């Protein structure tokens, strides 16, 4: 699904990631942990081709990203749901339109009932017409999750998705990700929330990747 | 992208695609204003071009099928030479009619320069013979030679030396009008390109979000293209109507006023400026599309 082969990424003269080789196989569930600034967001951006590796190969859906043109990258991203740390909304559009944006850009219709159900599920049923700047951090994050899964993507990448959520909502989100994983979707969640990881491991065979000293390694059972 | 795509794009708008770009401020106003102003100016360039065309036709019609023979001879030979000239003309193929101008007609011709009281009989004024061509016309060189033999004081003026510079001047005026319209459209394309670039740069974050959710460049470009095309269409529509209204305020065509009073539209010519808004829309469409796709490539 997503493969890294000897991948390095440098920025501003410094190397953020070095010699990363790993496979995210279809249907797998991974957490990515590491200290702040270790390169978790960079790793995720490499996973959805927002960044290109400075060395090595990143392969997504069996295509090396370096050889893809912009349209191919766009089509590839339609098979991915990404929850960004800073949510990334179009502030002039209501939440409903932001959540359905992936469907709109790929020319697919939106079922009003499905949208209402999804918004209700993430606790935003009453805020469909609200503009993103009027929402709290937690509400924005839930809307970002709804947008990431509305296309029923093959891969869900989430960068600190529970950063602004309370514990109950975090668990609801986790249950959703577990459900998606059981449906065969590949999940990668960058988080520093060890309680969330421990909880997840009780429900699903999640593996934990840790970024340390520019390298990504499989973490042991010491979480 | 072809014109049919443009029409389909305007006819079947993607409302969602339209909304992804936030309502913008000064670029909207700037595009409509530029398109309106350019259309207003283009109406005058069109009026100039069409008027020059009419003028060229009028001059051609008036001078093309006629010629004048000027007879300069001593007073006692004038009548003889005039008869000889008319006799030659009667037997010349391609000449439909010929007649000597009367004293009154010659006086009327000279009146603008010398006044109405000119004593023609006391001045050595040449006699003028007016002829009209028919069919394929006559052989000017052959006629000149026959006149030289039969009436040595007769000189054929086939109006060529008048007609040519007038026709050249009129056609250059027409060209000037056409070139002005092209320059106006090119300026409009340049201004709209600048406005579109400014709008794209101001919406870099919107473009980033759209790309993250899988939008292709053509989807993003379409949102900008449609917006700028409609603005140009509306602005040019208002500008063209204002230009046409201004043209109606110009003095109507009068013989005494010459070229300037004929500057305007006549008959079906009034419909020609109505082509300006769709042309402006087409220019805006292609200018914005090129600018958008180029900018999106830069924003990779």
Summarize the structure.
Chain B: This is Cell division transport system permease protein. Chain B: Keywords: Cell cycle, Cell division, Membrane, Transmembrane, Transmembrane helix. Chain A is an alpha/beta fold.
List the keywords.
heterodimer; A: 223 residues; alpha/beta; Rossmann fold; six-stranded mixed β-sheet; four-stranded antiparallel β-sheet; B: alpha+beta; 4 strands; rod-shaped
Describe it for me?
The complex is a heterodimer of chains A (223) and B (300). By secondary structure, chain A is α/β, with parallel strands linked by helices. Helices cover 34% and strands 26% of the residues of chain A. Chain A is built from 8 helices and 10 strands. In chain A, β7 (155-159), α7 (167-182) and β8 (186-190) form a beta-alpha-beta unit. The longest helix of chain A is centred in the C-terminal third of the chain and has 16 residues, at 167-182. The relative contact order of chain A is 0.19. Chain B is an alpha+beta fold and 300 residues long. Chain B has 2 domains: 3-60 and 164-298, no CATH class; 73-152, no CATH class. Chain B has 10 helices and 4 strands, in the order αααβαβαβαβαααα. The mean pLDDT of chain B is 83. The interface between A and B is medium-sized, with 25 and 22 residues.
């Amino acid at each position: 699904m997503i493969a890294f082969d000897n991948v390095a990424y440098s920025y501003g003269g410094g190397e953020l990631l070095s010699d990363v080789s790993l496979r995210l196989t279809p249907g797998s569930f991974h957490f990515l942990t590491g200290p702040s600034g270790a390169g978790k967001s960079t790793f995720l951006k490499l996973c959805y081709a927002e960044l290109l590796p400075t060395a090595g190969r990143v392969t997504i859906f069996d295509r090396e990203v370096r050889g893809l043109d912009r349209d191919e990258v766009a089509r590839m991203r339609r098979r991915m749901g990404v929850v960004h740390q800073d949510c990334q909304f179009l502030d002039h559009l209501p939440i409903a339109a932001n959540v359905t944006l992936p469907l709109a850009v790929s020319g697919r219709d939106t079922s009003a009932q499905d949208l209402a159900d999804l918004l209700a599920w993430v606790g935003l049923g009453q805020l469909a017409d609200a503009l993103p700047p009027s929402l709290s951090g937690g509400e924005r994050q839930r809307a970002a999750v709804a947008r990431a899964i509305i296309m029923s993507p093959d891969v869900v990448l989430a960068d600190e998705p529970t950063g602004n959520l309370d514990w109950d909502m975090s668990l609801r989100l986790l249950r959703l990700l577990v459900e998606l994983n059981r449906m065969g979707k590949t999940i990668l969640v960058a988080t520093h929330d060890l309680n969330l990881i421990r909880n997840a491991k009780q429900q699903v065979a999640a593996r934990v990747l840790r970024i340390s000293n520019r390298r990504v390694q499989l973490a042991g059972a010491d979480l | 992208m072809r014109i049919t795509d443009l029409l389909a794009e305007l006819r079947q708008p993607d409302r969602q695609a339209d909304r992804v770009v936030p309502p913008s401020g000064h670029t909207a106003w700037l595009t409509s204003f530029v398109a309106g102003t350019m259309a207003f100016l283009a109406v005058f360039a069109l009026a100039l071009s069409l008027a020059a065309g009419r003028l060229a036709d009028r001059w051609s019609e008036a001078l093309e099928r006629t010629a004048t023979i000027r007879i300069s001879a001593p007073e006692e030979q004038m009548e003889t030479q005039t008869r000889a000239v008319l006799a030659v003309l009667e037997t010349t193929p391609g000449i439909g009619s010929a007649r000597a101008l009367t004293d009154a007609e010659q006086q009327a011709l000279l009146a603008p320069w010398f006044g109405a009281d000119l004593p023609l009989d006391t001045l050595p004024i040449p006699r003028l013979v007016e002829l009209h061509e028919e069919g394929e016309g006559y052989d000017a060189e052959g006629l000149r030679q026959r006149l030289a033999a039969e009436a040595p004081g007769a000189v054929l003026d086939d109006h060529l030396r008048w007609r040519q510079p007038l026709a050249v001047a009129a056609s250059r005026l027409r060209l000037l009008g056409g070139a002005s319209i092209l320059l106006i459209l090119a300026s409009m394309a340049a201004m709209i390109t600048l406005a579109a670039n400014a709008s794209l740069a101001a919406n870099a974050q919107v473009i980033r979000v759209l790309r993250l959710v899988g939008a292709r460049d053509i989807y993003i470009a379409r949102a900008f293209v449609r917006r700028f095309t409609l603005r140009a269409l509306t602005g040019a529509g208002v500008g063209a109507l204002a230009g046409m209204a201004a043209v109606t305020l110009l003095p109507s065509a009068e013989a005494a006023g010459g070229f300037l009073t004929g500057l305007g539209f006549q008959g079906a010519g009034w419909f020609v400026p109505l082509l300006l808004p769709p042309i402006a829309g087409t220019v805006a469409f292609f200018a914005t599309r090129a600018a958008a796709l180029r900018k999106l490539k830069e924003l990779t």
